[in-house]
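tool_call: predict_structure(chain=1)
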Amino acid sequence: METIKLDARNIDECAARAAAVLRTGGVVLYPTDTLYGLGADALSDTAVAKIHAIKGREEKKPIHAIVSGVDMAEKYAELTDDVRLLAERLPQGQVTFIVEKKAGFDTGVMNGIATFGFRIPDNSFCLALAREFGKPITATSANKAGQKPERDIGKILIQLGPAVEGIDLVVDAGELPESKPSTVVDFSGTEPVILREGAISAALLHLPHARGTTTQ
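tool_result:
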């Protein structure tokens, strides 16, 4: 397992190294604008299976992805005018959009489900990585399923235990500050519904809240 230190001066260099690992089907432990995430090619069955194995997570539980912008999301999902408008107007990183996937995408995070969940992060490294890789990247939190996510690389690796053998590259940005997770909104039905209230409240979005249906 390789570790590289991330700072404001080497963002592009670290993004290039991480993207190279993703292209080989590898897994990257990397910082996002909320928590450390486990990154892999979101369109690869094999890569996504590695993420499930590291987390000890039920394979039927959906995993969301980060994208570089609306243009990338539109390659894989059906975006309504409302979704496009919210994605462009709301602060980046604060909403995860669950939308209908486009026909023909049945691998990776879209395997066996009709939707695609994506977020446009408010993080220079994440955006650089998504642009460099050119495809969606898994963004599930780097923790054992059911356990509290840690914000420090050392604590994360201890919590994951022997499963860290499945991680090929660690991008270490130090201890991340406390922050709220994104608000998860399901736009795939007739009416949008908040599945997890986070950085933006249900009241602020004027949307119904579905209790007990979410997680990282």
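agent: Confidence is low (pLDDT under 50) at residues 212-216. Proceeding to next step.
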